[in-house]
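Module 6 notes. Inverse folding takes a fixed backbone as the condition and produces residue identities as the prediction. Think of it as a translation problem where the source language is geometry and the target language is the twenty amino acids. Below is one complete input and output pair. Work through it position by position during the lab.
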């Protein structure tokens, strides 16, 4: 049984209790450089004009409840054991946080993230999109959660200026193969790159290649693991649509990825591996994930590991001058009002701004902006919540050789050994 169903099974009684009282862009790329402990920007030999800055975030789950408050809501019918209608998630959120004036415009859900993008001006914006974009009613049987965004709400992605969406996750096929096909078509029509899902295995393994004017290229490969809840029968094959599902993290998998990277990487390119792995909850980083990430950097020439699946942020590592985000958490979801696992503060999120030097592939700077999901939108976190995230990253980063410092504006700067 896939992990999302387990999550809602654990909190089914909480949802029923809450329901009891209810009535039912910029598009380009830059780079990185190393330093001692690490006072990044002042040490790099490259000029600032040649560096590439990427915005990265974990799961973006704008189907289901969030889709319902947008201008063109989908049919709210759900096939979940604990919630028959997507409107129920709106009611849960409003019960906890107050009314959401519906419908909201497409920019609404991004809230304060829009100002952060304007302030930092990243060259490329990368996310993991955990929803299908479709009108298909062909929901995947024996799966407890189904995320769907109405195609008429595609502007909810374009208004954010997103350049890339990872699709190798456990929600892209929620509404069947027809839903996957429409999702791909909608992203293509919106000029948003993607990787990790497609009409056959070759398509799923094809990376997204994004040119950064006057600087170089950012290349993204996307992979998923069974540990993230992706059904085994979602794996693409030579003549079967699906996702780019890795069989394991063994040596032969590393060699396979190395060959894929070698076939496309040129001097000055930044290569990102975006990977959906692990469960929803818990800070532990399995040793096999660490070893896999290190091998991808050492053997495959990968410059950034962009991990996601956990609903909360996890520890950060810098290995050989390359950043490893083991779990980037959710930046936007419709979980507001669902109780359980409060100790993980899944309402708190981070916007990751990663600056690299394309000439060396080294990390120059990693800035993080603390955010909070509330009223179905992304808000700047309070100073208290920013401190909570700072303490968390310092605690989890200690064995990984990283720590963060809080800046006067409550943003965080990563330091590493």
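Target side of the pair, the amino acids:
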């Amino acid at each position: 049984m896939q992990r999302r169903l387990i999550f809602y099974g654990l909190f089914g009684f909480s949802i029923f209790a809450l329901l009891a009282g209810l009535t039912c862009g910029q598009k380009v790329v830059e780079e990185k450089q190393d330093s001692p402990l690490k006072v990044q920007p002042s040490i790099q030999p490259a000029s600032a004009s040649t560096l590439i800055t990427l915005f990265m975030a974990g799961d973006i789950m704008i189907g289901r409840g969030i889709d319902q408050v947008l201008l063109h809501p989908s049919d709210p019918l759900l096939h979940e054991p604990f919630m028959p209608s997507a409107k129920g998630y709106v009611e849960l959120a409003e019960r906890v946080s107050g009314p959401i004036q519906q419908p909201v415009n497409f920019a609404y859900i991004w809230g304060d993230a829009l100002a952060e993008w304007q302030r930092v001006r990243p060259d490329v914006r990368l996310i993991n999109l955990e929803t299908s974009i479709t009108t298909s009613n062909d929901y995947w049987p024996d799966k407890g959660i189904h995320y769907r965004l109405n195609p008429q709400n595609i502007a909810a992605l374009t208004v954010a200026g997103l350049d890339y969406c990872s699709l190798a996750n456990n929600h892209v096929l929620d509404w069947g193969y027809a839903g996957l096909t429409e999702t791909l078509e909608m992203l293509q029509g919106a000029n948003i790159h993607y990787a990790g899902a497609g009409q056959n295995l070759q398509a799923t393994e094809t990376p997204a290649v994004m040119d950064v004017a006057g600087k170089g290229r950012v290349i993204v490969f996307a992979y998923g693991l069974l540990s993230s809840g992706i059904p085994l029968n979602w794996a693409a094959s030579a003549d079967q649509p699906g996702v780019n599902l890795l069989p394991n993290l063994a040596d032969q998998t590393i060699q396979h990825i190395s060959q894929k990277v070698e076939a496309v990487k040129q001097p000055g390119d930044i290569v990102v591996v975006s990977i959906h792995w692990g469960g929803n909850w818990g800070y532990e980083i399995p040793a096999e994930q660490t070893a896999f990430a290190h091998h991808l950097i050492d053997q495959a020439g990968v410059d950034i590991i962009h991990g996601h699946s956990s609903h909360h942020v996890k520890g950060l590592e810098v290995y050989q001058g390359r950043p490893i985000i083991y779990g980037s958490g959710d930046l936007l979801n419709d979980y507001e009002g669902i109780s359980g696992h409060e100790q993980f503060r899944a309402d708190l999120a981070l916007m990751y701004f990663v600056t690299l030097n394309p000439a060396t592939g080294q990390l120059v700077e990693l800035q993080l902006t603390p955010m909070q999901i509330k009223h179905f939108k992304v808000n700047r976190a309070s100073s208290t919540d920013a401190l909570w995230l700072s303490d968390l990253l310092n605690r989890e980063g200690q064995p990984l050789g990283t720590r963060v410092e809080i800046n006067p504006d409550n943003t965080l700067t990563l330091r590493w050994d």
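Reference fact for the lab report: The CA atoms of residues 350 and 370 lie 5 Å apart.
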